[in-house]
Write a structure and sequence with these properties.
Elements: E1 7-10, H1 20-35, E2 39-42, H2 54-67, E3 74-77, E4 102-104, H3 118-130, E5 134-137, H4 141-153, H5 168-176, E6 182-185, E7 192-196, E8 200-204, E9 213-215, H6 223-233, E10 238-242, H7 249-259, E11 265-269, E12 272-273, H8 283-296, H9 301-309, H10 314-321, H11 325-333, H12 341-351, H13 360-365, H14 370-378, H15 399-405, E13 416-417, H16 420-433, H17 437-451, H18 453-461, H19 463-473, H20 480-486, H21 501-508, H22 515-527, H23 534-548, H24 552-564, H25 572-579, H26 581-597
This protein binds one RNA strand of 78 nucleotides through helix 4, strand 8, helix 6, strand 13 and helix 16.
RNA sequence: GGCCCCGUCGUCUAGCCAGGUCCAGGACACCAGGUUUUCAUCCUGGUAACACGGGUUCGAAUCCCGUCGGGGUCACCA
């Protein structure tokens, strides 16, 4: 076993989007395989017929691909990320932006959907049954529930054991007659020790181990069974998974022994929680949205749509309108009731609410960069233990670094809390110091095309302007989604600029000469600036300021207020360039009129 | 409740396995200054932790035991 090539696997169940915790598990499995020149395998555990869906499976593949966590074996993925500028880590597809291709069945150990492997499981069930290592059990769920309750009444944990009068031949006969039944594994009655690479040896006493179900009444294998069989058949050597699985491991080992399989190496990773120590759950988003609607005192769909109107988002609008007032009421009153993902998103958009990010898709929509997200989650439970040249701890790294250093020996044992502030700082740092303007422009556009149609349209209308916008927004941007705020003034029609009273009072009406006087003079200078580009505009304005013996602030702020309505914007040259000469002059003119007309 | 895991600044962590160089280092956040045409960036400085109690030892954040605290798990879900 020690000389077998390393094979790790990530095995999500397709019941929803990829959770950030799952992403870390996948990343670690991927990194471990890379580090040991092995293979990383992806398997879809869809043995729960009721909850699994093909859509969810596809979504998970896409999330992984976006993160740059490519898999060697598994479902084929050739579409590639829909975002042409997406960063890819690890087995990078390179700067040529070819579509990524992951998966396939080079070793011939597929299929990788468990629902397609039922004949394989069946063979193994028969083996166990014939060897007397597994047996049919006929209790109904109701009966089991009663037994559990009875045990509880005695303050004991219910442990299922084979009945003393169990008769294998008779049981098999009942099965042949077609009686509903499950299959259970006969536990060996001895303590089982898990040799864990993170936690060390962990021993579970025999009394704690029950004869658990390995095949459900519907004929599907349980998770325990499928995972053990598939890991063996697919050659998995190292199982890295969350600590919540530790208690399952003795069962898996018992199963491996019964089936004559090898036991892989195990490494159970600590868990990730919210900052407030609650579990990171999809419900968090629904909760936040519900609270916001209640706090805003909104009771009808129309009330929500009205809020949305000002921001002009068509998609969210349609989503909201698909809701009825009755739906909304029921949702508001019932704590348990949850809205769909799209609906929650639309509600948040209407209220200008930032939803807590839980799934990979949430972080993507919020404008986090995939390589930053990977960097950050890698640090939750793992640390390279190296220093930078300046003596600080090395904590910023890319996937290539992870792939070259990652191992189980530096995985920590303690659970961690997900600090979004630090993630945000990482993201901001990468955007501001780790990207060129060109690359940022591409990433931002890719993001807009997926999440902000209005911005994307504006971007496509004028490529040169988009370059300026990117240059202006990048230094003030922490996530791709807030870059828009930095240049939002440019998307507003010239006559719709709203002048902030405070700003007007402070920079236009005060001073000697007053802001308005300076503004008028600056406007005249601007009329003849050529070319209309940031550098030329800045140069002209500096000359103007020097000429009048004014500090730059005295010139910049009145202009800023005149063209954006407020006192905050990117550099003045960029700000004016984005608005255009015509727009700038019109805005200055309009400001002069309005503010002189209403002298305070 | 049974079983299992864990316990260093508010948060992520380095240090622990091979006890002294640790009155505990870094990062994020926070606070105070500085640079700057606004904002952001950037620079400088600061506050802040070995859960508690016993051992072992010349010496313990590091080893042992106990207490307390947190988490996981107890399904025909994965």
């Amino acid at each position: 076993m020690h000389d077998r090539p390393v094979i790790t696997r990530f095995a999500p169940s397709p019941t929803g989007h990829l959770h950030i915790g799952g992403a870390r598990t996948a990343l670690f499995c991927w990194a471990f395989a890379r580090r040991h020149a092995g293979r990383f395998l992806l398997r879809i555990e869809d043995t729960d017929q009721a909850r699994s869906s093909e859509d969810a499976a596809r979504g998970i593949l896409e999330d992984l691909a976006w993160l740059g966590i490519g898999w060697d074996d598994g479902p084929l993925w050739v579409d590639g990320p829909s975002d042409p500028n997406v960063c890819s880590g690890g087995q990078a597809v390179g700067s040529s932006r070819r579509p990524a291709q992951y998966g396939g069945d080079a070793r011939g150990v597929g299929p990788y959907y468990q629902s397609q492997r039922r004949d394989i499981y069946e063979r193994e069930f028969v083996r166990l049954l014939e060897a007397g290592l597994a047996y049919p059990a006929f209790e109904t769920p109701e009966e089991l529930g009663a037994m559990r309750k009875a045990a509880e009444a005695e303050k004991k944990t219910f442990i299922y054991r084979q009945r003393g009068d169990y008769d294998h031949a008779a049981a098999l006969a009942r099965v042949r007659r077609g009686e509903a039944h499950v299959l259970r594994l006969k536990m060996p009655g001895q303590a089982i020790t898990v040799h864990d690479r993170v936690l060390g040896d962990v021993t579970f006493p025999a009394e704690e181990l029950d004869d658990f179900v390995i095949r459900k009444a519907d004929g599907f294998p349980t998770y325990h069974f499928a995972v053990v069989v598939d890991d063996e058949l697919m050659g998995v050597t190292h199982v890295l998974r969350g600590q919540e699985h530790l208690n399952n491991t003795p069962r898996h080992i018992a199963l491996q022994r019964a089936l004559g399989f090898r036991t892989p190496f195990y490494a159970h990773m600590p868990l990730i929680f919210n900052l407030d120590a609650t579990k990171m759950s999809k419900r968090d988003k629904d909760k936040a949205a519900k609270k916001a609607v209640r706090d805003a005192g909104i009771e009808s769909v129309a009330g929500l749509v009205e809020r949305l109107h000002s921001t002009g988002r068509q998609r969210e609008r349609a989503v909201l309108q698909s809701l009825s007032d009755a739906d909304l009421q029921v949702w508001l009153k019932d704590k348990q009731r949850q809205l769909g993902r799209e609906q929650v998103g639309a509600v948040a958009a209407a209220l200008g609410l930032k939803l807590p990010e839980i799934d990979v898709e949430d972080f993507r929509a919020a404008g986090y960069l995939p390589e930053v997200l990977c960097n950050f989650i890698a640090l939750l439970g793992w640390n390279p233990g190296e220093r930078n040249a300046d003596g600080t701890d090395l904590e910023r790294f890319d996937q290539a670094f992870l792939a070259s250093r990652f191992d189980t020996d530096r995985i920590g044992k303690t659970n961690s809390k997900f600090d979004r502030e630090k993630l945000l700082a990482f993201n901001a740092d990468t955007i501001q110091h780790g990207l060129t303007d060109e690359r940022f422009a591409g990433l931002w556009l890719g993001w807009a095309e997926r999440f902000d149609e209005q911005l994307a349209t504006w971007a496509r209308a004028d490529a040169a302007r988009w370059q300026v916008a990117s240059r202006a927004a990048r230094p003030r941007t922490k996530t791709l989604s807030d870059a828009r705020e930095a240049i939002g003034f440019a998307l507003v029609p010239d006559d719709a600029v709203v002048f902030d009273d405070k700003a007007v009072g402070k920079v236009l009406h005060k001073g000697e000469p007053s802001g308005l006087v300076v503004l008028e003079g600056a406007g005249k200078v601007l009329a003849s600036v050529d070319p209309w580009a940031p550098e030329a505009i800045d140069a002209a304005l500096h000359a103007f300021a020097t000429d009048r013996g004014l500090g730059m602030g005295k010139v910049a702020q009145p202009l800023r207020v005149a063209v954006t309505g407020g006192s905050v914007s990117p550099g003045l040259g960029e700000t004016l360039a984005l608005i255009g000469r015509e727009g700038t002059l019109r805005r200055v003119e309009r400001c002069l009129m309005e503010c002189r007309g209403s002298v305070i």
